[in-house]
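Project channel, design review

CF: Before we commit to the Agromyces kandeliae constructs, I'd like one complete example in the thread so the newer folks can see what an input/output pair looks like. Taking MBL fold metallo-hydrolase.
RD: sounds good, go ahead.
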Amino acid sequence: MRVTKLEHAALVVEHSGDRLFIDPGKFTTPITEASGALAVVITHLHDDHWTPEQLARIRDRSPDVRVFGPAGVVAAAADAGIEVVRVAPGDEVEVGPFRLRFFGGRHAVIHPSIPVIDNVGVLVNDALYYAGDSFAVPEGVEVDVLAAPAGAPWMKISEAMDYVMAVRPKRAFPTHEMVLSRAGKDLSNARLGWATEQGGGEYLPLEPGDSFDA
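CF: and here is what came back for MBL fold metallo-hydrolase:
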């Protein structure tokens, strides 16, 4: 399957002409190439990970697309007139060539004054893992490719490094990086690259629009 990094936390996975979108939010360029989309996974309800407008653009080009997310996303999307299938940690769904397994359950703590919301990590075809806004490790899984958080209000780079070393992926690349300057991206890439190499893996310093085969 072909993985393309979009801006911030968004990804698109292509397999046999079908597409899976993950977390297309407000920091992602409006998605206009969405024909063949079978599914969208939204890890949690924050709008840097999804907006009704992004989902509407995808649905305009792929009317039968199915959207999956945790309970908070289901409720928020319903208010916008969008149907989302609820998923929770431990669930498994197959949509065309995509096998989706869900992990985690809770968003990382931003600050004690801010409520902690639900959040699911997703493993695609037992190869690509993305934990949303969390450091949830998929227990019992050997991760081929990890989307590793590079910068966010809920993390510091040492935590992301420890997370990468706990997962020990064969390959890793940065996500959630639109809150960083160019200098910040370079710093995060250096630290996450080091952490990936500690487990014998390869780090891919992807920029928006870059693709690779998983």
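RD: helpful, thanks. The mean pLDDT is 97.
CF: The chain is about 20% helix and 30% strand.
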